[in-house]
Amino acid sequence: MISTGLVVLGLGARSGTLEDELAAAAGAALAAVCLRPADVGVLATLDRRAGEPGPRAVADRNGWRIVAFTAAELATVDVPHPSAEVAHRSGTPSVAEAAALLAAGPGATLILPKLAFPAATVAIARGTGPEA
Q: Long-range contacts of range 32-39, CB-CB < 8 Å, 24 or more positions apart?
């Protein structure tokens, strides 16, 4: 279990991705850094995905709050692994890493850079929250 700070799971996904696929991606990403769903406080994603059934169900199942950002907001975040393909499709070079960092607040750090799965990409950040 983590000792301090807000842990945010950033999620990039194709439209219509099913809950089971997203839950599997989130679980694998958390396991990669020895975290449990209970360690996460927020699922952060692109505003166009936040209201879809898959992301909402994953957040609800785990008790995570959903935070959504526009592509323009995400595009302002400096990330280690930008993608031209994601920029073309989404209007921002990063969704998972940028959303995790932005939701985790100023001075946040990635504890898991983006990890790609067939229908989703996940990144995990730790910070103090946006109000810090």
A: 32/112, 32/115, 33/111, 33/112, 33/124, 35/2, 35/7, 35/124, 36/1, 37/62, 37/63, 37/64, 38/1, 38/62, 38/63, 39/1, 39/2, 39/7
Domain 6-127 belongs to what topology? Nucleotidyltransferase; domain 5 (3.30.420)
Measured distance CA(102)–CA(21) in Å, rounded: 24
Percent of the chain exceeding pLDDT 90 equals 91
What confidence category does residue 131 fall into, taking pLDDT thresholds of 50, 70 and 90?
very low
pTM > 0.85: yes or no: yes
List, for residues 75-84, the tens digit of each pLDDT value: 999 999 999 9
- As a whole number of angstroms, the distance between CA 57 and CA 130 comes to 24
Give the residue among 37, 45, 39 at the shortest CA–CA distance from 61: 37
